[in-house]
Amino acid sequence: MLKKFLYVRSWKELGLDTLYDIAGSVLFAMGYYTFAEDGGFAPGGVTGIAMLIRHYVSWLPLGTLTLALNVPVILACLPVLGRKYLVKSLRTMVVSTFFLDVVFTRLPVYDGSRLLCAVFTGICAGAGLALIYMRGSSTGGSDFVIAAVKKKRPHLSFGQITLALDGLVILAGWPVFGDIDAILYGLIAVVASTIVMDKVIYGAGSGKLVIAVTDHGMKAAQAIAEAVDRGATLAPARGSYTGLNKEMLYCACSNNEVFRVRNAICGADERAIIMVCEANEVFGEGFKEPDTTV
């Protein structure tokens, strides 16, 4: 009954979700509290709005204020995201609030270089949010909006959507903190967060796509199988210049396998034309399973 209520298939899955929640929340709290608290800029998101409010009402706890601001956003996005996403996110929000208001308030705040504050806010928060997103959850607030947009526009990356939504919060930092540098440092934090977020989320499943035009497709495919135990796909092709019939070979592989795949193809057909492309995410047998949690 409890597993059904929490929308998990097993206790192992719940344990893994909780582990990611804790790790992600620690990094998120470190970014927003340790580095952004005295940074003099708003790093975006609902937590960034909470930081702007705290500039005038400093006695309000950051995590609790963020949680309160999340309520209308949650209600607006619920029809798009569904109850499962809401339940998982509520658990994450409680964990992140605990680290923001209880744990990190007892730790010293970094008060050094403003530039370093912005950079490390982005690095820590981006890595933390990426871990949370990878388990189909969020810290609420703008994350709900990001997830809703991602569901409607899956071709957009989490980092791109975050960068677009955080713009207004960053601009609001100018009148609050009293200088235009607040915008610049806020942009640095969000750009750093965007880069780290996309690298963690998409880098975890990234690889290479090797494409070859060859006269000996089956021989090359067999050579690849022997070299790295990877399958390949063959398709008929025709050269536009020569008019000769060729074969097009496709092979998805990991980054550290691409050199051996290329050498295997060259060994089977030294006249083959080989192209190596980036593959941000590779799903299926031998790679990671597609995320269907949202």
Quick take:
The chain is 61% helix and 10% strand. With 294 residues, it is of the alpha+beta class. The longest helix has 42 residues, at 62-103.
List the helices and strands and how they pair.
Blueprint: H1 2-5, H2 11-35, H3 45-54, H4 62-103, H5 114-133, H6 142-152, H7 158-177, H8 181-203, E1 207-214, H9 217-228, E2 233-238, E3 245-253, H10 258-268, E4 273-279
Antiparallel strand pairs: 1-3, 1-4, 2-3
Helix pairs in contact: 2-4, 2-5, 3-4, 3-7, 4-6, 5-8, 6-7, 7-8, 9-10
Task: Describe the protein's architecture and organization.
The structure is a single chain. The protein is an alpha+beta fold and 294 residues long. It has helices at 2-5, 11-35, 45-54, 62-103, 114-133, 142-152, 158-177, 181-203, 217-228, 258-268, and strands at residues 207-214, 233-238, 245-253, 273-279. Strand 2 and strand 3 (245-253) form a beta hairpin. Helix 2 packs across helix 4 and helix 2 packs antiparallel against helix 5. It is elongated and about 75 Å long. It starts with a helix and ends in a 15-residue tail after the last strand. The relative contact order is 0.13. The mean pLDDT is 83.
